[in-house]
Design goal:
about 500 residues; single chain; 12 helices; alpha+beta; five-stranded antiparallel sheet; about 15% strand; rod-shaped
């Protein structure tokens, strides 16, 4: 039975106008919107105000803990210094009068001091004029030494300032320690506390507004991205964290725009490839239905329609394989494989196909086995896809080479499968995007024969799933070469993503 002839766009049978098939995009679940109601304390403004108020409160309390004892000691020191000044003055006044007995000057001085809240004791010849002073204080004055201390006088703690005079005389002034200093200072904290809280509220509002503005801008940009606006960009401004967020969103928008552009190009390419066999099948079907095909041509027409249907089926299978390639349920059945035997099996299939179009097919393999651990069906799918791409572009008389060899001197190194051709080959720029879906299809459509743009992407994905690597390069035959390196270690096979 002769090989079916697969017509191209130019010889696809009677003309028929066919609309390109509609490509159904996946339906995305609606993104949940932000909650309309937020509880107290959920917004950045409220939290910033609470934090700054708490900081202000802690600062005031810490200041109080440190400052109140200092304030109390400072007040007592001032009272002590004032009492010392009074004691010096009283000693000067009474220096020459204590030896004369109780005088009117003494009584007047004592009354004046008592009016100031100061109690005065007169020491004559080492004895106090009345009880109440600690004996140790009286003794020191009698010995001619001054006294400055805190002692219990009359059952109360008091500040004492004593000044010694000649002949065992002297004067001692005492003032009860001021009570309620702690309460006074603490009561005075209300004003700075309220001022600190007010400052915290203002600072929190300003800080929250400053921090929330770029976040709101980013949220607005993200919402526009979700709505499909890929031209949105966020201004980059300090601080560094906000700038990093802006860079990330801008990069995301650019990546989405690039990805969607590639998807559109890919869908256009796939639509074009699907339309070609559909146009041929429909045209021949209409011709059969209208009876314009002679009875002797019916068998050939049927073979042509079958070939186009197989082409269409292959495209659909490639699309499904690409869609499932990274899924966890993508079937892999790895096992030890002799790549030399795989090359021999492929030679039986491809030698005849190449000879039919005048292309020289050659297999290069060593005499010894080339072991690898891979899925034989999937790696054969990769080899068939690479050979089909080569056969599409190689002119008659040029070679197509399938070569296998060990990856290294040790059996554990794995194996290498290589497909080379003598076709037009690729530029260095082409090699960089050779395995991107539809990239070469877009570059060379209308320039030379191209496929759907799926084969190389599918081959690269399959090789990655099999734990290997694939590289595109320049072949010594003058065209392109594709080198597939496969592992010999079963643990390198990625059975799931």
């Amino acid at each position: 039975m002769p090989e079916p002839v697969v017509p191209g766009d130019a010889d696809a049978g009677p003309p028929a106008h066919v609309e390109p098939p509609t490509v159904a995009l996946p339906v995305l679940s609606p993104t949940p919107s932000a909650p309309a109601r937020r509880g107290f304390g959920r917004t950045l403004t409220v939290r910033a105000v609470l934090v700054t108020c708490a900081v202000a409160l802690v600062a005031v309390l810490v200041t109080a803990i440190v400052a109140v004892p200092l304030a109390v000691r400072g007040a007592e020191r001032r009272d002590q210094e004032a009492l010392a000044a009074q004691a010096r003055l009283a000693a000067e006044v009474l220096r020459t009068r204590l030896d004369r007995g109780r005088t009117a000057d003494e009584e007047r001085l004592i009354r004046q001091l008592r009016a100031l809240g100061i109690d005065a004791f007169l020491i004559r010849a080492g004895a106090a004029d009345r009880p109440g002073l600690p004996p140790r204080v009286v003794q020191r004055i009698g010995e001619g030494r001054n006294v400055s201390a805190r002692r219990v006088v009359g059952g109360r703690r008091a500040l004492i300032e004593g000044r010694a005079l000649p002949n065992g005389n002297g004067v001692v002034l005492s003032r009860p320690l001021t009570t309620g200093l702690w309460g006074q200072v603490l009561r005075g904290l209300w004003v700075p506390l309220l001022a600190g809280l007010a400052a915290g509220v203002v600072a929190g509002l300003l800080l929250a507004r400053r921090l929330a503005r770029p976040i709101r801008t980013a949220a607005t940009a993200a919402a526009r991205l979700r709505a499909g606006d890929r031209a949105v960009r966020v201004p980059v401004e300090p601080p560094d964290e906000v700038a990093d967020l802006a860079y990330a969103l801008n990069g995301l928008a650019a990546a989405l725009a690039t990805s969607e552009g590639r998807q559109r190009e890919f869908l256009l390419s796939v639509s074009h490839e699907l339309r070609t066999p559909l146009t041929a099948i429909r045209g021949y079907a209409e011709a059969l239905a209208d009876g314009v095909i002679e009875p002797g041509e019916v068998a050939g027409t049927g073979r042509t329609m079958l070939a186009e249907a197989e082409h269409l089926d292959r495209l659909v299978r490639d699309l499904l394989a690409l869609a499932r390639l990274e899924a966890a349920d993508f079937p892999l059945e790895p096992a030890p494989v002799d790549l030399g035997r795989l090359a021999a099996d492929a030679e039986r299939t491809w030698a005849a196909r190449c000879a039919a179009v005048g292309v020289v097919f050659r297999v290069e393999k060593p005499d010894s086995p080339v072991p690898a651990y891979t899925d034989p069906g999937r790696i054969r799918q990769v080899v068939d896809g690479l050979l089909e791409n080569a056969l599409r572009v190689v002119p008659p008389g040029a070679p197509v080479v399938l070569a296998v060899r060990p990856a290294g001197p040790e059996p554990a190194s794995g194996g290498v499968v290589e497909v080379r051709d003598g076709g037009p080959g690729f530029t260095d720029d082409d090699l960089a995007v050779a395995f991107e879906r539809g990239a070469l299809h877009e570059r060379y459509r209308g320039v030379r024969k191209v496929g759907s743009g799926l084969g190389l992407a599918l081959a690269a994905g399959l090789v990655r799933r099999l734990g290997g690597e694939i590289v595109a390069g320049h072949a010594p035959e003058g065209g392109a070469s594709f080198t597939v390196r496969l592992p010999a270690d079963p643990y390198l096979i990625r059975t799931s993503v």
